[in-house]
Amino acid sequence: MIFIKSKLPVVVTFVAAFIIVAQYYLDIPAWKSFAAELLRWNVVLAAFALALGIGGIVRLHWGRISRRDPSAPYSAICLLSLAVFLVVGFAQTTRGKTYQWLWDYILLPVQATSYATTFFFITSAAYRAFRIKNSYAVVLMVSAILMMLRVGFFASVMPFTPKVAAWVWDIPTTAGMRAVTIGAALSLVGSSFRVIVGLERGHLGGGE
Amino acid sequence: MALNKNVYFHLFVLVAFVATFYYTASRFRQGGKFSIRKLDAIAKMEEAVGRATEMGRPIHWSYGMGAFDAQYFAAFTLLEYAASLCAKYDTQMIVSIALPEVVPMTEEVIRKAYTDAGKIDKYRPDDIRFWGGSHNPAMIGTISREQVAGNFMIGSLFHESILGIEAAARYNAIQVGGTANTHQLPFIAAGCDAIFIGAEMFAAAAHLQPNPVRVGSVSAEDWLTRFMIVLMAVGAVMATFGNSALANLMKR
């Protein structure tokens, strides 16, 4: 049991990662195509994990319904929607007429509505971010104003603003972002290496 | 062996990293010294859990909606830290998850934190919530209904960062963010009380538990960063004088 829970995932991770990483450095077509096939298996694994996630959703909402929680009606709608999508999906596949209708006329409008609320969140975030509370906020405020002034009416009456904004974008912003990118990329290599060779096992419920 | 001729330099960087990693790890194991800058975001996480405990309100955690990559492994370390604090102070922590494959790993990390704290009976699997594609509205709803006192958004963040941060700001939650996705850094910097910028998220593991593996990894990353800076400086000087030999070498 301990082997299946802690050692087997490490062995599988190492073998799979070795195949994927090595195909980048090796010029062997058969190896590359096998690595590509292995990547496709990821979809199958994710499908198994999805079943686990659905189990969690059912457990959470069924618990609320059985406890007669105030949010029980919403939980019932959630479980009902899940059941309808599952039944229709299994009966017709995701290309079926009813499934497509459910997707196009119920799910997509609901998602678009929720996405539209981003506007309000970004507006209030901008208000909070631009409040001048320290020297960093002043830099942020000045940079943001420059970016806004570089286009449209303001750019025509203040022709120097696009040039200053371009300098801010090309020099300090790009330099800062590249520094973060290089540091993060090297850290990604380090973190991935620790996981691949099994030195970091926190996600399996173990230490190092 | 048929090596890909276009990635010699990449292979050199990988080999250099592995060699430096094992060297620095063995030096630390033999009693070498290691110091890491204090990360404010870690202290802020403890402050958030403490405040949540006093107020009797939960902590919320999200990895974001990005694809499963190494950022999640850095986040697992910080999740374990947050979960151990919550276990210690008997504070509820709700985790919003978008990717199904992350659910079992999250369960293992949190279960281990509660086991280590000797409070496995307080572990609540129901607080680990898989939302899938509905992550964003579900996360906003959870934050609003539960009126969280702390919000940690650490991982592969995209536009959901601003949604979670603004939702939690309405309840004056203490917020800690962290990502290596540069396009989201301005948003979390503007909205959070403390942040892990890129590599800091990965270095936090060595800060929390400085063992040879983590210290070796962070030291190797630092040495390679220095090497990259030297390469950039030398390359810039050479390019200024019209010599592109180094740039050509790095393309191979």
Describe the structure.
The complex is a heterodimer of chains A (208) and B (252). With 208 residues, chain A is mainly α. Helices cover 84% and strands 0% of the residues of chain A. In chain A, helix 2 packs across helix 3. Chain B has 252 residues and is an alpha/beta fold. Chain B has a domain of 126 residues: 3-Layer(aba) Sandwich (Rossmann fold). Chain B is built from ten helices and six strands; from the N terminus they run H-H-E-H-E-H-E-H-E-H-E-H-E-H-H-H. Chain B has a six-stranded parallel beta sheet, sandwiched between helices. In chain B, helix 1 packs across helix 9 and helix 2 crosses helix 3. The longest helix of chain B is centred in the last third of the chain and has 29 residues. Classes of the chains: A mainly alpha (208), B alpha/beta (252). The interface between A and B is large, with 55 and 74 residues.
Give a quick summary of the entry.
The complex is a heterodimer of chains A (208) and B (252). Chain A is mainly alpha-helical and 208 residues long.
Please compute the radius of gyration of chain B using only Cα atoms: 21 Å
Query: If you average the pLDDT of chain B, what whole number results?
Result: 92
Which class do the helix and strand fractions of chain A yield?
mainly alpha
In terms of DSSP E residues, the strand content of chain B is: 5-15%
- String of helices and strands of chain B: HHEHEHEHEHEHEHHH
- Distance separating the two termini of chain B: 17 Å
- Name the poorly predicted regions of chain B: none
* Net shape of chain A: extended
Question: CATH first level of the domain at 55-154 and 170-178 and 191-207 in chain B: which class?
Answer: Alpha Beta
**Can you summarize the main beta sheet of chain B?**
6 strands, parallel
Oligomer: heterodimer
Shape of chain B: globular
Number of strands of chain B: 6
CATH fold field value of the domain at 55-154 and 170-178 and 191-207 in chain B: Rossmann fold
Mean pLDDT of chain A: 88
| Poorly predicted tracts of residues of chain A | none
Distance between the termini of chain A: 19 Å
What is the spatial order of strands in the main beta sheet of chain B? 3-2-1-4-5-6
